[in-house]
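Put briefly, the fold is written as integer tokens. One such record reads:
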Amino acid sequence: MKNTVLRYGVYSAITICALSLAGWFLGKNLDYGIQEVIGYASMVISLLFVFFGIKHYRDNENNGIVSFKKALLIGVLISLIAALAFGILDVIYVKFINPDFMAEYYTHYVEQMRNTLSEADFKVEFEKLEAQKKLFSNIFMSFFLMFATVLIIGFIISLLSALILQRKP
């Protein structure tokens, strides 16, 4: 099981990093909404290795049998490796590759709020945003948010994969 988790976890980590870097550099002139869709699509595509990892374990290492619990564990561990890689990549991106990203995104988000909310609602939401600004610009929080996002999506894919691939003796 350990070899399967490591192999497919590394495949998933490499894929999420490659797709994210490609999305960041090739899509830097795209709207933030489109970039967000590309980001989530990259996460889902890279986490397809969860399914393939569980299937590989069941078919090649465990004589065609895998319990739901074992399949879920394998999937979550593969997702954990991808989540760690993406969290670290995000920190590298916002710290070294594009250190202005947080300020640019914040400005974009404020403008989006200004254009969609009434003046009174904007003031309320802007105060909330200002209160959270320091927290979300923290590098550890950035790591945690990206790590948690990938892990949550990975857990959902692991759950679905475990349901599909479980096979009892």
Notes: The longest helix spans residues 68-97. The chain has a mean pLDDT of 92. The two ends are 18 Å apart (CA to CA).
